[in-house]
């Protein structure tokens, strides 16, 4: 048995409920993109701050997907965000 992306979220859907949390399509991609911004030497301090704030907002949804049970972030600051968010979800 395997699960395809469309089994979880059809092309017509933009969000679904996972473990009591509404999760938007693209949430994981947004977290990864913001991590790239946060880690980029070319990003300003303000861009890094904004990226980290967005990751904090996305963390509860990613925890609802249970990704944190299988993935560890290499960036210690990002991992701390998920560790802290997990305490409140």
Outline the fold blueprint:
Blueprint lengths: L4 H4 L6 E4 L2 E4 L2 H13 L5 H20 L11 H11 L3
Antiparallel strand pairs: 1-2
Helix pairs in contact: 2-3, 3-4
Structure description:
By secondary structure, the protein is mainly α. The protein has 4 helices and 2 strands. α2 packs antiparallel against α3 and α3 (45-64) packs across α4 (76-86). The longest helix has 20 residues, at 45-64.
List low-confidence stretches.
Answer: none
What's the main sheet like? 2 strands, antiparallel
Helix content: 40-55%
Described by the principal axes of the CA atoms, the overall outline is globular
Percentage of residues in strands? 5-15%
Q: Using the CA coordinates, give the radius of gyration.
A: 14 Å
Please provide the count of β strands. Answer: 2
The chain-level mean pLDDT equals: 95
Strand order of the largest sheet: 1-2
Secondary structure class reads: mainly alpha
Count, helices:
4
Distance between the termini: 29 Å
Characterize the quaternary organization of these chains: single chain
Order of helices and strands: HEEHHH
Give a brief rundown of this model.
With 89 residues, this protein is mainly α.
Question: What keywords describe this structure?
Answer:
single chain; 89 residues; mainly alpha; two-stranded antiparallel ribbon; 4 helices; globular
């Amino acid at each position: 048995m395997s699960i395809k992306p469309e089994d979880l979220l059809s092309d017509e859907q933009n969000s679904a409920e996972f473990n009591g949390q509404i999760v938007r399509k693209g949430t994981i991609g947004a977290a990864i993109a913001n991590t790239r911004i946060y880690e980029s030497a070319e990003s300003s301090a303000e861009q890094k701050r904004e990226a980290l704030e967005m990751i904090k907002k996305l963390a509860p949804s990613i925890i609802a997907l249970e990704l944190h049970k299988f993935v560890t972030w290499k960036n210690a600051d990002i991992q701390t965000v998920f560790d802290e968010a997990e305490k409140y979800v």
